């Protein structure tokens, strides 16, 4: 089991962030959520700031536009997760370079595919 933070969480069932939440829970992972617009999603608290997220976090999975990553990068570096997954559409060479420079794995992949193919851990 890993502790996973979803950045860009959504309560909308058609969103991949929501699908990731459900699948991560199905696979037994402990999930924390971060988003600016929600108080809770499926009974879980939604944090507005990375600094408020209970540590440690093993994996961060991103569901935000790359143009918004700059607002999170310093806090991500302070959080020191083992890895950050850039889901399709969230890729950022600049953010990935900053993470790797701090020994944080930056992985361009789909969380859902990693889970289904048993490559998440």
UniProtKB/TrEMBL annotation:
Xref: Pfam families: CoA_binding_2
Residues of the CoA-binding domain: 1-90
SUPFAM superfamilies: NAD(P)-binding Rossmann-fold domains
Protein name: CoA-binding domain-containing protein
């Amino acid at each position: 089991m890993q502790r996973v933070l979803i950045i860009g969480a959504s309560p909308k069932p058609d969103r991949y962030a929501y699908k990731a939440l459900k699948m991560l829970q199905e696979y037994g992972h402990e999930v924390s959520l971060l988003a600016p617009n929600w108080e809770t999603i499926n009974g879980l608290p939604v944090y507005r700031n990375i600094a408020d997220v209970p540590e440690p976090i093993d994996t961060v999975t991103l569901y935000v536009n790359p143009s918004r990553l700059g607002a999170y990068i310093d806090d991500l570096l302070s959080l020191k997760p083992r890895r950050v997954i850039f889901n399709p559409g969230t890729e950022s060479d600049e953010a990935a370079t900053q993470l790797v420079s701090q020994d944080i794995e930056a992985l361009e992949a789909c969380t859902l595919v990693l889970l289904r193919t048993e490559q998440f851990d």
